[in-house]
Amino acid sequence: MAELHRRDNLNWDEYFMGIAILSAKRSKDPSTQVGACIVDANNKVVSIGYNGMPRGVDDDRIPWGHGEGLDSKYLYVCHAEFNAILNTRDGSALNGCRIYVTLFPCNECAKAIIQTGVKEIIYLDDKYHDHVEEQASRRILDMAGVTYRQYKGRVVSVDVK
Question: How far apart are CA 48 and CA 80, in angstroms?
Fold first, then answer.
């Protein structure tokens, strides 16, 4: 009699959100680590990204706090979604894709998502739900017909045996 295969393996949502979570661990941001994974209709990873400084910028020379003016990290950091979009070899490859992200996208990332043709957002957390940037994000995503849903699957941790 043949042995049965495992039944507790990851489904596609769990797998791709796991990649986004793992990508977030590359972020050097002390307060918020965000990861993103873009996937095509054939369940192939197209790109990944995490929130961090632009390429070639020394992470130690930029403020990581929530300061004011030029001392605010928000003026310098590239969001995970934006990095994942920029990390693709061919921007047209994103048309019809879905993006898994650990934090609901801000309005700036929503615009980039729309412009590249990504059709679905699966997000883990929405801790800034009531902020104006996320309200604007939902509004513009709705206008553009980009769907979004909160991830409800298992949050897996890496357990190497």
Answer: 8
